[in-house]
Write a structure and sequence with these properties.
Layout: E1 5-8, H1 12-24, E2 29-32, H2 35-44, E3 49-53, H3 61-70, E4 79-83, H4 88-96, E5 101-104, H5 109-123, E6 132-134, E7 137-140, E8 145-148, E9 151-152, H6 157-168, E10 173-175, H7 176-184, H8 193-206, E11 215-218, E12 222-225
The structure holds calcium ion.
The site of calcium ion has 5 residues, from loops.
């Protein structure tokens, strides 16, 4: 459920510091020592956020940020830039290149984790690791608990992710293909029917509480979750 974070940093000590602290905060991490390594990692699997050092051997972090913003698949990828520079001008350049936030070295690990959470909250609320609630329906991604009016309901891992997605993306209709992308993940090839199977299971789990009515089938299109 947590966001996978790609760390792009050529200085081993800083890479380690960032990786250890993000892992400790519950985020799976992937590491790269250069922009080229980062591009290869992104081709393998799209991360949910990238912590990107400005000064890298070869292609700079700034150039990579621009490239990611221009790419169709990576356009929405949240970017936090790291830099040793302190000049205001660099910050402007970084933000213009499409960074969501900016951290100047040396930074405290605590601040880095706080910034990562803040960017995710803004850009990908379902991955920030925080509890979401609609009325008395509550999901806690950290403990994997689902509650209705304080009573726990049993959900399989896929139904949990599906419900989490719906609760953080209410009132819009999602096609089965889009749900597969969002809930099952990038680079996954599964039949669209699979979505229906898990929607059915999710409804069955919600039915005793009556909350299954929030999850509507939109004929010929897909599914929509009511926000209240
Ligand atoms: Ca560096």
């Amino acid at each position: 459920m947590s966001a996978t974070i790609l760390i792009v940093e050529d200085e081993p000590a800083i890479q380690e510091l960032v990786a250890v602290n993000l892992k400790h905060a519950g985020f799976p991490v992937v590491r790269a020592g250069s922009a080229e390594e980062a591009e290869s990692a992104i081709r393998d699997a799209l991360p949910d956020l990238i912590v990107l050092d400005w000064m890298l051997p070869g292609q700079s972090g700034l150039a990579l940020a621009r490239k990611l913003r221009a790419g169709e698949r990576t356009r929405e990828l949240p970017i936090i830039m790291l830099t040793a520079r302190v000049h205001e001008e660099d910050k402007v350049q970084g933000l213009e290149a499409g960074a969501d936030d900016y951290l100047t070295k040396p930074f405290s690990p605590k601040e880095l984790v706080a910034r990562v959470r803040a960017v995710l909250r803004r850009r990908a609320p379902h991955l920030a690791g925080e509890t979401v609630a609609i009325g008395d329906l509550m999901l806690n991604p950290a403990t994997h608990e689902a509650l209705v009016a304080g009573q726990q309901i049993e959900l399989g891992p896929t139904e949990f992710r599906l419900l989490f997605f719906f609760m953080t993306h209410t009132e819009r209709v999602y096609t089965r293909a889009r749900l597969l992308d969002e809930v099952w993940g990038d680079h996954v090839f599964i039949e669209e029917r699979t979505v229906d199977v898990h929607v059915r299971r999710l409804r069955a789990a919600l039915e005793p509480s009556g909350r299954h009515e929030l999850l509507e089938t939109v004929r010929g299109t897909g599914y929509r979750f009511r926000g209240a």
